[in-house]
Sequence to fold (878 residues):
Amino acid sequence: MAASPAPPTTVRRNPPRRARPPPTPLRSAKPKPTVSTLLDEAAAAPAAADAPSISPPPPTPTPASAAALSSSSSSQDERLKVYLRIRPLPGPERQRCKPSSRLPNPNPKAKEQARKPSKQQDGAGAGAGVCLVATGANSVALTVPQSKLVDLKRGRTEVFDGFSAVLPPESSQHDIFTEVMNPLVDEFLGGKSGLLVAMGPTGSGKTHTVFGTPRNPGIVPLTLQKIFNITDESDGGNQPTRFFSLSMFEILCEGKGERILDLLSDAADLVLQQSTSTTIKGLKEVAISNSMDAESLVSHGMLKRSTAATNANSESSRSQCIITIRAIPKNNDLQSEHQISGSVLTIADLAGAERKKCTGNKGSRLLESNFINNTSMVFGLCLRALLDHQKKQKKTLEKHFKNSLLTRYLRDYLEGRKRMTLILNVKPGDGDYSDTSFLLRQASPYMKIRYTSLDDSSDLVTQKRSNASLICQENRKKRKVHKPEVLTAKGKDTIDKPDDIEVSERDAFLNLELQRVSRSEQIMKNLFRTLWAVSKQKLLESESAAKRTRELLIDKDIQIIELKKELNDLKSRSHEKFPIAADTPVERSDAVTVSQAALSSVSQSDQTERGSSDAALDAVHIVAQVVDKEPGSSGSCSEQIPAHDAGVAHATSHLDHPSDRSFAELHILPCMKSEQASLSQFSVCGKKAPVEQSEEALSNNIKVEDIQHNADIEAMKHHDCPSFSQQAISAVVDVSSNQPFLELQGMGAVQQNPEEPVCESDLNDHGDSGDMLPHVLNERESQMEASVVLSKDDREAEGVRDKKEDLCASRPCKTKKTTSRRLRPVAGMMLKEFSGTELDAAADTKKQGGGGEAGAGRSDKLIRLLKSRPESIMNRRS
Ligand SMILES: Nc1ncnc2c1ncn2[C@@H]1O[C@H](COP(=O)(O)OP(=O)(O)OP(=O)(O)O)[C@@H](O)[C@H]1O
Fold:
C-alpha cells in the first residue's frame, strides 16, 4: 500500500489587504519593439508560458486587471516601492526546464512526478528547473527545489506578495522603465528627488536592468531620453528653463577599506562630506544638454567601472555604481527653484551578493566579495532599522548607515526623508533558489516602509550646494579655456550662470589666492629676516676684529715712536754725557795707535826688563790718571777695557814684587777710591728718571755682557788662579760703567759666577753704600796678595798669553774694534802727552842702550811725565 503524498503547503508573505488582480504586462506603455526587445521576448516566451503550478494559479491578465494595478499603485504612493524583476533563464537552462514544473498540469500522475526529485535535477543543480514564478501582478511563488527538500511533508512553496509590481522574465527593458522608472522621472521633473536601487544576487541582471546594452538600453538611457524629450516638448523650441548635470562614480573595495572613484574624470581622492546634506567633494558633474551626449557620457563611465569575471558572471560588477542626474533651474527664482528643480534623480547599481562556492573567488576577488556582501547587508540593515523604527516610534533609528560609504551617501533615503524605489533582480532557476529566497525574505518587509513626512527642504540646500559646485566647475573650465564636449556638441548657450554665484565664487577664489600669497610672503619675510640677522652679526664681528687690529697697529706704532724717541733721547743723552765719543775716525785711529804704542812700549820694556815693576807701575799710573782725570765720563772709562786687556793686564801680571805691591797700594787704591766717589754720583743719577735708568741699565747690561764675555775669556785663560791683572781689569771695567759698585760686584761675581744677572735692586741697595768699598777693596787686596805669590812658570805662561793678546789687539776683532773706539779720549790725551822729544829720546835711548838701566830711565821719565801732566791735561779739557 503506497503512502499518499503530503499536500503542498503555501506560505504567504506580505498578503495583500484586499484581493488584487495578478500582474499584467503593461502593453500600453510598451515602446516600439526593437530587435533586442523581440529577442528578449522570444527568450522569455517559454518561461512565460510556464505558469507557476503552485497554488493559487495566476488569473489571466485582462485590461481590467491592468487598471486595477494602476489603482493599487496609486494607493501605495506613500509606501516604499519594491519591484521584482525575474530574469529569464539562459538558453541551455531553458531547454532543460520541464513544462510540468511551470504550468499547472491537470494530470495527477504528472503532477506527482513533478514533485519527485529526479536525478537529472539533482545533478543539474541550478539549471534543472524554475523555482520562482510570478503568481500575480504583485506576488511570486518560490518553490523549494526537490534537491533541497528536507521534509517532504512540509510546505515547499512560498508566496511573496505585496510587491509594487512583479516583472516576469518576458518583460522588456521598456516595460521595466515604464513600470519602475517613469514615476520617478515624473517626480524628478516635478521637483522631487528620487532614488532607484537595483538589488539582487550576482548575475541576476541588475546591470542589465540599469544600463542595458546599446541595442537594448536600460533604465538610465531611457530616463535620459525621457528627460530631454519632455524638456524639449515643454520648451517648445524656446530657451530651456533648466539644465541638467550628470555625475557618475563608484564605491569600490580598496584593501580592507573602500573608496570613491569618479567615473567621469581622473580625479582622485574623492571625499564624502556629510553636513546638512551629503555631497562628494571633488566629484565631477557634467552638464548635459541632450540625451545622446548624456548616453555617451554614461557609456564612457561604464568603461571605467570595475568589473571582473567570476564563475557566476563573466562580467561581474565589483563596485557599487551610482549615477546622479541633477536638475538646475535657469532662473534664480527661489520659489520656482523650489517648485521646479530641487530634484536629484539617483540610480544605484549595486554589486550582487556572492557565494564563494558559486563564484569560486580567491584573493582579491574574495575581498571584493566580502566588500560587496557587507555593503548589501548594511544596506538591508538600514532599511530594516527604518522599518522597525516606523513600527515602533519609540525605538531609535539604528545608524547602520555609518558602516559603509554607500549607505552614508544614501542616508537621506535610508532614513526615510526622501523617496526611494527598489528593484529586486532575481534568477528563477532552481540552482538560484538560495539567493532568491534570501533576497525575497530580506526585501519582503521593506514594502511596509512608509514615507509619512518627507523632508524636501534638504533638497533645496542640496540643490544650492550642487548649483554652486556646478558653477564652480564651469568657472574652472572657463579659466582653463576648455569647453566640455557635452556643451559644445549641441549649443553654446546651454548653461547660464547666476551672476551673484559667479561673483561669490570669484571672490572665494581670490581670497584663497590672497591667503596663499600672503603666507608665501610671510615665509619669505621670515627667511630674509633671519639671513639679515646672521649677515649683520658676521659683519659686526668682522668690524670689531678690524678695529682691534687697527688699535693693535696704532699701539705698535706708538711703541715704535716711543722707542724711536727713547732712542733719540738716548743718543742725545749719550752725546751730552759722552761728547768725546763723537770724535773723528782719525782720532780713533790715533788713539788706538797711541795706546798701542804706549802699551807696546810697556811690553817692550817688559821683554827687556822682565821682573821689573816699572812698566807695570807706569801702566797702572796711566789707568789711575785716566780714571782720576775723567771722573764724569764713565763711558770713556769703560772704553779702556781693551787697553787694559792689552797692556795693563800685562803690566799687572808682574806685580810679584813687594815694592810693586806697595806701589799699587799707594797709587791704585787712592785712584779707585776717587773713582768710587765719582761713580757713586752716577748711581745716584741713575735713580732720577726711570726711563734713563732703564736705558742705562740696558746699556750697562750690554756692557756687562761684553765684559762678561771678555771675563769669560779671561776666566778660561786663568781659570786656575786669577791674576792681579785680571782683578785690575775688572776693577777698571767696573769703574767705567755707570753703576760702579754694581759693576765691581758684578765683575767679582762674574769671576765667581759669570752667569749671575745684575739687578737694579742691587744697584739701589748698594749704589750709594759707602761701606761696600772697603769690603771690595779688601777683597781686591787679598786677591792681589794671592796673585803676587804666582809661580815663575805662571808668569812665563802669562807673558806668552800677553803676547798673543797683543797680536789680537792689532787684528780687526770685534771686541778690539769696539774697545779701540772707546779708547779714543784717553788715547788722544796720551798721544798728545807722549808726543814730543821725551818719547823719541826714550826710544833712542832704548835703541842705543838696550840695557836695563836705559829702560829703567825711560820708565822713570814716563812716570814722571804722567805725574806732572795731569794738571795740564785737566786744564786743557776744561
Ligand atoms: N532580462 C534579461 N534579458 C536578457 N539577458 C539578461 C537579462 N538580465 C541579465 N541578462 C544577462 O545576464 C548576464 C548577467 O547580467 P548582469 O551582469 O546584469 O548581472 P548583475 O546582476 O549585474 O551581476 P553582478 O552583480 O555580478 O554585476 C548578462 O550577460 C546579461 O546580458
